[in-house]
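Bug report

Summary: structure tokens for Solute carrier family 2, facilitated glucose transporter member 5 differ between web form and batch submission.
Environment: batch mode, default settings.
Steps: 1) Submit the sequence below via batch. 2) Compare with the web form result.

Sequence submitted:
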Amino acid sequence: MQEFYNQTYHKRNNINIDKGLLMFFWGLTVTFFPIGGLIGTLLARPLADHCGRKNILLVNNFFSVTAAVLSCCCKAVHCYELVIFSRLVIGICAGIACSVVPMYLGEVSPHNLRGAVIVVAHFFIAFGVLVAQALGLHVVLGTRKGWPVLLFLTSIPALFQILLLPQFPESPRYLLMQKGDEENARKALQMVRQREDVEEEMEEMRMEDNMEQTEKRMSMCSLVLCQSQQWQLLSVIVMMLGQQLSSLNTIRYYAEVIYLSTGVQEDNVRYITVTISAMVIFITTITIFVIDSSGRRVLLLTGFGICSVCCILLAMALELQSTIAWMSYFSTAFLIIYVIGHSIGPSPVPSVMITEMFLQSSRASAFMAGEIVHWVSLFLTDMLFLHIKIGAESYSFLVFFLICMSTYAYIFKMVPETKKKTFVEIRKIVKDHIDGCLRK
């Protein structure tokens, strides 16, 4: 793609692009995605609360298709600005989806399957990454002629959603508690449960509606200032910071160097990356089946615990690699275990916790807060980790050890188990747990 930037610039100006200017354009291409994600997050709460979860997801496909068309056409019209702008547009799409998809799934799923249903969304994110990496190989579409086609393929899931999503109901909780439409809420609930008798769940939703009368239409500012919600909000911020600042995005800077140090040919590195992405899907599948039995807290603690240990071991192995040749194999092993640990809990579970720790009218604002942390952290990680790596070399993983360990300690102390509970029950569990922790 950088070659396309250079060729387009040369065609316009009859000179090759300056390396500094090329890096500036490439930096815009990279950073516009999290910036778009942040914009999408800011749009998600008001749109989800005013238009409905289903409707905003339907409209969101417009951003995906638009970005795909812009990316596909850029080479034909010799305009690299379209690529840069498309990154902003697809970022907006991702920002809305990251907030609204788990929110919608959490609200339509039964409480005994809620965790699994929400993690299924993360499974398909991992599956999308795998497909993109596989299609991006040089033998497929990762070529000078193939990359516009590869970028256009992002429109296919959006087109499927445009066709299929209208057949699905709106969130029954949204209809009852935020629109006051009990009749359509009952019809929607009957549709997703595939049975006529849904009175027990309707009564549970009425109880939640009565409980949150003081929290109706709570904005993010109101959520921040609400004393009864501050610890839940802090928990969201800590989990999202831990997720992103210990993220799989950070290890990609070292992954290629580690693979090459084991003797792997440079052309084969991408095949290893695809294999590890397939492993992430396998681990996420296991998480789907165990999250509602083992619980959310156990998976979070296990994941952050594994990542903490691997950060220490990676720092040691990378430091010794220059003097002990076979240590590179241990570096690769620790890297893979790190990915497994992150896929167990830190990657998929925080969105489940955000859904469950807040009642209906404050849930969209909670997702907004969590996703702001997500996208800002992603931006900072992309921009700052390279400088940390250059300054600290292998010891940069000690920074991530501190992040993982701090997140582990907070979850161990302050975050209760919420599996197989209604939202009303979870509110009481969280309040009692936090009160108990603060009294100690």
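Above is the batch result. After comparison, the two runs are identical; trailing whitespace caused the diff. The mean pLDDT is 91. The chain has 20 helices and no strands.
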